[in-house]
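Help wanted!
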Amino acid sequence: MRKLLILLLCAALVACGGKQANQASGAAEKVPEQKVYKWRMVTTWPKNLPGVGVAPERLAEVLRKMSNGRLQITVYGAGEIVPALGVFDAVSLGNVEMGHGAAYYWKGKVPAAQFFTAVPFGLTAQEMNGWLHHGGGMELWEKLYARYNLVPLAAGNTGVQMAGWFNKEIKSLDDIQGMKMRIPGFGGEVFEAAGGTAVNIPGGEIFTSMQTGVIDATEWIGPYNDLAFGFYQVAKYYYYPGWQEPGPTLEMIVNKKAFDSLPPDLQEMLRAAAGMINEDLLSEYTARNNAALEELVQKHGVIVKRLPDDVLRELRRVSEDLVSKLPGDDPLAKEIYESYRKFRKDASAYTEISERAFLNARAETDDLAQ
Amino acid sequence: MRKLLILLLCAALVACGGKQANQASGAAEKVPEQKVYKWRMVTTWPKNLPGVGVAPERLAEVLRKMSNGRLQITVYGAGEIVPALGVFDAVSLGNVEMGHGAAYYWKGKVPAAQFFTAVPFGLTAQEMNGWLHHGGGMELWEKLYARYNLVPLAAGNTGVQMAGWFNKEIKSLDDIQGMKMRIPGFGGEVFEAAGGTAVNIPGGEIFTSMQTGVIDATEWIGPYNDLAFGFYQVAKYYYYPGWQEPGPTLEMIVNKKAFDSLPPDLQEMLRAAAGMINEDLLSEYTARNNAALEELVQKHGVIVKRLPDDVLRELRRVSEDLVSKLPGDDPLAKEIYESYRKFRKDASAYTEISERAFLNARAETDDLAQ
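Answered by r_m:
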């Protein structure tokens, strides 16, 4: 009788176990995986630098809210975990899951990456977004970064920058001969080919270098950031237009393995949040730059001037030549160059009768504005 | 003995039941509310019209993926549930949860709404985003639409449009006197004040009206959409720049009660998805317009011309006068007008030395391009 009793008890318990198992799997079908991903995002920006430095924090906050805390990203400024120029490798090697910066910082290792930030006399912010998201650019960027186990996303833009700060007036091409200017990336190579001397130093050291005369000129971003850096104290002339960076795209890079480990809903959130911040950061610069420019002129007596035609023409001539040589023997780099060049030709043809024609018509009738 | 057996079995089953209960509640604590929201989004666009009509579908798809199917939005074209111009009321009354369209369609009921789409000689797409998201514009838009139980979100932009299609050449201001043109919104009022006759007919009826001579001219969007509508078959002259709509923002409107009923994570997804599509649609137009323009010119012999200076100046003079009268006695409308006017003044001052100065420098050196 005892044996029978034990047998029956076991049968009952097994049945319960089975029921539990079913219930568990039933629940799993309804409810998405609730695992919490605690990620680290390293950036090339000084911690909380207005604009570019704050955007990654905003990005992380939106993702935390959308994911109900399932995706928690901690943002680190340049040098906190890795130096500014170590971001690419840190994410590529998987030491951290994410990074935020600008592709042209990696030109030493990936020359073609520069096409995905800015090319002198190249695409504006609106044209860059058009090329990346509806002109085949994004697919080429993904192909290029796949070599380094990275998934790239466009995540911010500063709009047309300024040509930079100069400690003397630029009257003609002669005035930039031998001039020492802090100008990184492709713009630097062009400046050198045009007779100047390009120096590349981190943002934090620019002010002192100008003050001590190590450099005669520098470019940084635009009025909003340049005012905060106090460049008006070490240079009097502020030149435009920003021929070297007409609409630099900022990048969010994600380690491929980390990206693939996310469930589809979180992957989609990453893409949407990047798209949102891509517009939001450009909007912030568009809204803040003018007030800063006014303060620079009114309060600090900065002289704003346009680069002379002969300087602009020489910089254009040289950059067209240099950019055509950039791809070298890399077939993918050639493909990227051709795609970028064709898009610029096509898009600027329409920009001629849309954006440019409108801005000129608005300016030419501004005397009638109230 | 039997009784004991049954007692023991019951005890075992109760124990199991308890275990199940605990496990269930344990899971419930971790998991966010899994309620599924099945919403309807009505639009002012012909179903699946390239660009503006497809954007809402893309928006719904992204939200479905991000929410793991918790937010399922069905998109309806103009006339499927409510007519194009009935979208505002349908969402305001809560008959449907969402809508997609353009704020200036509601000018009859809400004159100040036009500031949130486009103002003649007003802000470009980039400047509109700057004003809305970092210049105080969005807060004013929310304040205005709160009167109608609506939450507005910027959700798309076409960029600078074309001035339109004309069946004869415009040599001077005299040529538009008495001319019958399909031009809605604020642009129509300006066209009338400049001597023309503005007609407002839905997109679907424009072609026939041009063909039968009911109207002499029409504006629609830009090459990408205009080519599809076949306007080149009924008009030879295609004029620029789109003075009437320099960067029209499209709106996503959500019924306030419906919006408040969403959990915070889904509300955040709505905002991020709107921000994403706001950039994505502009990118699509930027990438598609030129190929369409080329086809119009090369394949269909369309003549592309710039409006004469005296026409542009008169349209500017008249619009400055009309827009200043738009607010009437509504204090909020006055506040919106002042905010918009100040932002245009400030932003265009920086646009002068950034966007405009760069586009001109690029164009003036294009002879050096490869």
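OP: Thanks! One thing I noticed: Chain A touches chain B through 109 residues (CB under 8 Å).
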